[in-house]
Design brief:
The chain has 212 residues and is mostly beta strands. It contains no helices and 16 strands. The chain has a 5-stranded mixed beta sheet with strand order 2-9-8-4-6, with no helix packed on it. A 4-stranded mixed beta sheet has the order 1-3-7-5, with no helix packed on it. Strands 13-12-15-16 form a 4-stranded antiparallel beta sheet, with no helix packed on it.
Length: 212
C-alpha cells in the first residue's frame, strides 16, 4: 500500500479536507500511514503526540501512540504507523481510522482516513511459512471471486499425501495448516486449483521442505 501522507501545521487550528477512500485487501501486512508535522508556531520547541483514537476491528497497529519530541522552529518530522489487515476482513465493508494529534503548546486536531475492504485483484498462492518446517506449516492463498478450491499435497514421487481443502471458498485470503507429524523429512509440493463461479480456472504450486 502506498504511504498516506498528511501535513500538519500547528499554527492552524482546523482544516477542511477532501476525503479519499483507500482500498485494502484482506491479509495485507506492513501497511503504512505517514503523518508529517512541522513546527510553524514561530518560536520555541514542540513535543507532538499522535495516537489512534478509532479503528475497525480488522486493523491492528504495531503501535497505537507515537511521540515526536523537541521539534525546533520550522523543523519537520514524520510519525509512521505500521498496520496489518486481518485475513477475515469483510469484503465490501467501509470504515475509518482516526488519529488525534496534539502539540505541547495546546495545538491539536483530528485526522480521519476512509477505508474500504476490497477483493483480491488476482489469484495467488503464497509460499508456506515456516519453510523448512517441523512438524506443521501454514499455507495461504487468495482468490478474486468465489470458487471451488482444492489444495493437495504430494511427495517427490508424485503420490498424493493429503487433501487439505476441497470445497467452495469465498472471495478473499485464506489459510490452512499442514501437519506432517507422520511424514518423513524431504521435499513436498502443494497444488492449489480453483474453479471460479464465472468459469475462470486458476492453478499454482509451491515446494516446501519438511526437516526433522
Amino acid at each position: 500500500m502506498k504511504p498516506l501522507t498528511y501535513f500538519l501545521m500547528f499554527f492552524i487550528s482546523a482544516f477542511a479536507f477532501a476525503q479519499t477512500t483507500y482500498e485494502l485487501e484482506p491479509g495485507l501486512k506492513n501497511n503504512l500511514f505517514e503523518l508529517n508535522v512541522a513546527n510553524n508556531t514561530g518560536s520555541g520547541t514542540q513535543t507532538v503526540t499522535f495516537f489512534v483514537s478509532g479503528k475497525p476491528e480488522w486493523i491492528s497497529f504495531d503501535n497505537d501512540e507515537l511521540i515526536l519530541q523537541n521539534l525546533t522552529k520550522a523543523e519537520k518530522q514524520t510519525a509512521q504507523f505500521y498496520f496489518n489487515v486481518s485475513n477475515d476482513a469483510p469484503i465490501g465493508e467501509e470504515s475509518n481510522v482516526t488519529f488525534r494529534i496534539i502539540g505541547s503548546k495546546g495545538s491539536g486536531l483530528t485526522k480521519t482516513y476512509n477505508l474500504k475492504v476490497v477483493a483480491p485483484k488476482t489469484f495467488e498462492v503464497l509460499q508456506n511459512y515456516p519453510n523448512p518446517f517441523n512438524p506443521s506449516t501454514t499455507i495461504k492463498y487468495s482468490i478474486p471471486q468465489d470458487a471451488i478450491v482444492s489444495l493437495k499435497v504430494f511427495n517427490v514421487l508424485g503420490e498424493r499425501v493429503t487433501e487439505l481443502v476441497n470445497k467452495e471458498v469465498k472471495t478473499g485470503l485464506h489459510e490452512v495448516t499442514f501437519n506432517a507429524t507422520n511424514l518423513s523429512s524431504g521435499f513436498y509440493f502443494y497444488i492449489v486449483e480453483a474453479n471460479g463461479m464465472d468459469g475462470s480456472k486458476y492453478f499454482d504450486s509451491k515446494k516446501m521442505i519438511l526437516l526433522k
